[in-house]
Amino acid sequence: GAHAQTAAQPAADTGPASAGPASAGPASAGPASASNEIIVTGYRFLDEDTSGITNLPLPVEKVPQSISLVNNDFAKAADLKNMGEIAQHTTGALWASYSPSYGNQFWLRGFSAGYAIDGLTVGDQITEPDPAILERYEVVKGPASVVYGAQSPGGVVNLVSKTASPDTPNYLEALGGSWGRWRVEGQVADSLNASGTIRAIAVAAHEEGGSFVDFVKLNKTVAYGGLDFDLSERLTGYVRVSYQRTEDTPYNGIPTYPDGTPVPVSRSFFMGGTDYDNLTQATRVNTGLTWRPSDEWTFDLKAIYQYTTHDGQNVYPYGYIAEDGSFPVGGEYFDAWHVNDSTVGGTATRKLDDIGLTDSYIVASVRYQHYRYYISERNFSAGAANINDGERAVSDLYNSLTPVPGGYEQDQRMNYLTGSVQAVVKVASPLTFIGGIAYSKPEIDMQVYNGAWQNLDPGQQVNYRGALVYEPVDGLNLYASYSESYQPNLRIDINHDVLPPVSGKQYEVGAKYLPNRQILLTAALFEIRESNVAVYDTMVDGEALYKASGVRHRGVELEATGQVTDQWQVKGGLALLDPKVTNDPENPVNVGETRPWLPRVTANLYTSYDFDNGISVSGGARYVGSVKTYDRSSTPTPDISAYTLFDAAVGYSFDDWRLQMNLKNIFDKHYYVSTPIFQSLSSGLYPGEPRSVTVSMRRNF
C-alpha cells in the first residue's frame, strides 16, 4: 500500500557525514519533524543536502547564496524530460536553447550556467544525463569561482548521480503519451553482502517517440550502474558508470520575417530535412573516496571521465525569411565531433570544535580539469527554398543538399587548475562568518584547420568571497554575501580575436527559513556586475561573431519548496530580473538600456496533495514574461510575447503500484521559447509544446 516512513532527521550541523543523498521514487516521504509519521502516496519535493555543490559542510538553509534543489521525485511528479523543463520549474532559471542530443542550455540570473556532475566541473558541451539516473539537480545561483575556479557568473548546475542506499527502491515503469511517445524504465538496488557494506544499483531506460513538430523523432537508450561501498567505518567510496545513446532529428525552429514578425505557419511545421539525424553517444565513469581518520578530519578524492561523440548533420535557414517566403538554406555535415572531459579533485575538511570554535570548519581543495574538444565538418551546398511551398517541398530541398569539399576544423585543449580555501567560523551563537579565496590558472590552446596552435591563455586569477549568516531564531537565517566570478571568454569578435575574460562581482542579501525541516522558504536580492560579457554582434559566412560589453543584473528571487502539511507539498517561485548594459564601446547608445533576450519576470508553481485513499492530485503554472529582441543600435523588432502555461496530474497508489496521468499546457497556449544563446530572430523561434498527455504505470518491488 502507501509507504510509511518516520521522517526523523539528523541534526543539520553535524558536518559532512550528516548530509547523505536522498533516495528517489515515491517510496520516500518528505522531511518533517521527528515526531510525525507521514503516509505519502505520491512524491516528495524537498532535499537538503548541498555538500556536493558548495563544497562546504553546511545544510541548505545556512548557505549564504540562493540555491534551488530539484529532485528526481519532483521530475517524476511533473513529468520533466530534460534540463530545459527543469529550468522552467527553477526560480531564476531560463530555458535558453533546445536540443535533445546536444543538450538543453540552462541560464541563471541572465547568464549561461556552468555544469558539474557529483561536484566535479564538466565542460559546457555536456550531453545531459537522463533524469532516470539522477538523484537531483542542485542549482547554485551567482558566482561560484571560489569553489570551481573559472566559472560562469550566473551559477552552476550540479547533476547528482543516483546512489545505492538501504532506502533505494526497485521499480519498473512504463509510460506512453502524445505523438507516439513511449518509455520503459527500471531500477534495481540491493546489498551485495550480508553486512550491507557493498551496495549496487542498476538503471536502464529506453524512450522513443515523435514530436508536435512533424518528422521530428527521438530515440534514446540509457544504462547506468553504480557501487557504493564501506571499506571500513571511516572509509567509504563509490564507482558509477553510465552510457547514453541519443538519436534525434535536427530542428532549429523557424526564423521570422526581417521585421521580426513570426511566419504564419503551424507549430508543427518542420524546417529541416527528413533524411538527416544526429547521433550522440556519451560514456561516463566517476569515482570517489571519503576518509574520516578522526572526528576532526575528512578527506575526499573524486574523479570523473566523459567521452562524447556526435555524428550526423544539421541543416537550417541562413537568415530571415523574405516577405515572399523565400530563404537561403545550408548546414553542416559532421565528419568528426568528439569531446574528452576529465576532472579530478581533492578536498580536506578540518572541524574546529576541539579548539573552541563549535560548528566551524576550514575546507581546502584542489581541482584539475582537462577538456579536449575536436570538430571537423563540411558545409552543405547552398540552396534556396520557399516556406509557402509547404514543409514537404522545403524538406525535399534540404534533403537534396550535398557536402562540398573544404569545411571547418577546430581542435581545442583546455586545462584548468584551481586551488581554494574556505572557512566557516561561528563567531557567536547566532552569527557565522564564511570566507574563501581561490587561485585559478586556465591554459587554453586552439588549432583551426591544420594551422598553428594558438595560445589563448587568459592569465591566472585570484577570486574572493565573504559572507555573514545570522540566525535570530531556530531555522531562520539572514545573510549578506560578496562573491567574484572569472571565466575565460572563447567568443570571437569581428576581427577574429578572442574576447577578454569575463569577470565580475556579486552582492547578495537574503533570508532562508526551514521550520521543522519541512518547507524551505527563501528570498534573495542580488546585483551582479560583469565586464567583457559576449554579446551577439553579427553573422559572417554562417559564423556568429560577438563583442564585449559591460552589464549589470539586479534581481529578486522568492522560492518555496517542501511540505505545507503532511499531505500537501508545494514548489514555486518568483524571479524579477533587471539586466542593464553598463558599457558598450561600439554602440554607446545602448548604455543604460535593458538587455534583450532576457525575460524580466518568470514564475513557477506546482503543488500536490495526497489523499488518505491513495489518490493524489497535483498541478501548477509556469510564467515567462515578454522578451525584448533588439537593442537601440539595431532595427526594432517585436517582443516575444509573455505566456502562462497550466499543468495538472492525478495519481493513484495501491499496494506497490502507482498509476499517473499528466497533462501539460492544458489550455493549449501558443507560445515561443526564448533562446538567448543565439540572440537573433534570424536563428529561429522555437514554438512551445502544445497540449500533451502522458500516462505512466509504476510497480515497486
Describe what this molecule looks like in 3D.
By secondary structure, this protein is mainly beta. The protein has one domain (3-700): Maltoporin, Chain A (Beta Barrel). The strands form five sheets. It has a 22-stranded antiparallel barrel. It has a five-stranded mixed β-sheet with strand order 3-9-10-7-8. Strand 27 (519-540) and strand 28 form a beta hairpin. The radius of gyration is 25 Å and the shape is globular.
Approximate shape? globular
Low-confidence stretches: 1-40
- Mean pLDDT value: 86
CATH T-level topology:
Maltoporin, Chain A
Keywords, separated by commas or semicolons:
5-stranded mixed beta sheet, single chain, 22-stranded antiparallel barrel, disordered N terminus, mainly beta, 701 residues, Maltoporin, Chain A
In short:
The protein is mainly beta and 701 residues long. The chain is built from 5 helices and 36 strands. A hairpin with a 2-residue loop joins strand 5 and strand 6.
SSE blueprint:
Elements: E1 3-6, E2 37-40, H1 51-54, E3 67-71, H2 72-78, H3 83-88, E4 93-95, E5 106-108, E6 111-112, E7 114-117, E8 120-122, E9 134-141, H4 145-148, E10 155-161, E11 171-177, E12 181-191, E13 198-209, E14 218-230, E15 235-248, E16 278-291, E17 297-317, E18 326-351, E19 361-379, E20 383-386, H5 391-399, E21 408-428, E22 431-448, E23 454-455, E24 461-473, E25 476-487, E26 502-513, E27 519-540, E28 543-563, E29 568-583, E30 601-610, E31 615-624, E32 643-654, E33 657-664, E34 672-673, E35 686-687, E36 692-700
Parallel strand pairs: 7-10
Antiparallel strand pairs: 1-2, 3-9, 4-5, 5-6, 7-8, 9-10, 11-12, 11-36, 12-13, 13-14, 14-15, 15-16, 16-17, 17-18, 18-19, 18-20, 19-21, 21-22, 22-23, 22-24, 24-25, 25-26, 26-27, 27-28, 28-29, 29-30, 30-31, 31-32, 32-33, 33-36, 34-35
